[in-house]
């Protein structure tokens, strides 16, 4: 990991939509501000403290790399779900100037609904892959 990374993104490498998004965002990340971590290839001992594989696969997780740790050594700056997408947008050129849109009430509600629908699809897709 280089000192340039601002955030670490935990993504489902078996999810075709997730892989597409990571490729898309990676091309924009010329300054290497994002560390991309495929949950499916992550060894159990490399999982973040207080997080299980099921936690990370259940909802989208981003953590601030330089964030302080609490008294138990646990990362204190996690962004989960829609907040995780907003955090990615905050560090990527081309998106950082519009990241505030995640805070606009009507837009935020729409993104929450869309994200919930995506989670249902992804859960169905993961069950189908595991058969």
TrEMBL record:
InterPro entries: DCC1-like. Pfam families: DCC1-like. This is Thiol-disulfide oxidoreductase. It comes from Algimonas porphyrae. The lineage of its organism: Bacteria, Pseudomonadati, Pseudomonadota, Alphaproteobacteria, Maricaulales.
């Amino acid at each position: 990991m280089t000192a340039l990374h601002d955030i670490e993104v935990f993504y489902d490498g078996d999810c075709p939509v997730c892989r597409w998004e990571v490729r898309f965002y990676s091309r924009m990340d010329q300054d290497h501000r994002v560390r991309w971590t495929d949950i499916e290839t992550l060894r159990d001992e490399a999982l973040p403290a207080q997080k299980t594989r099921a936690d990370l696969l259940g909802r989208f997780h981003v953590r601030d790399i330089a964030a302080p740790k609490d008294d138990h050594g646990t990362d204190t700056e996690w962004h989960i779900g829609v907040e995780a997408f907003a955090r990615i947008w905050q560090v990527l050129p081309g998106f950082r100037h519009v990241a505030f849109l995640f805070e606009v009430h009507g837009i935020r509600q729409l993104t929450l609904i869309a994200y919930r629908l995506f989670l249902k699809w992804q859960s169905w897709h993961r069950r189908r892959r595991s058969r």
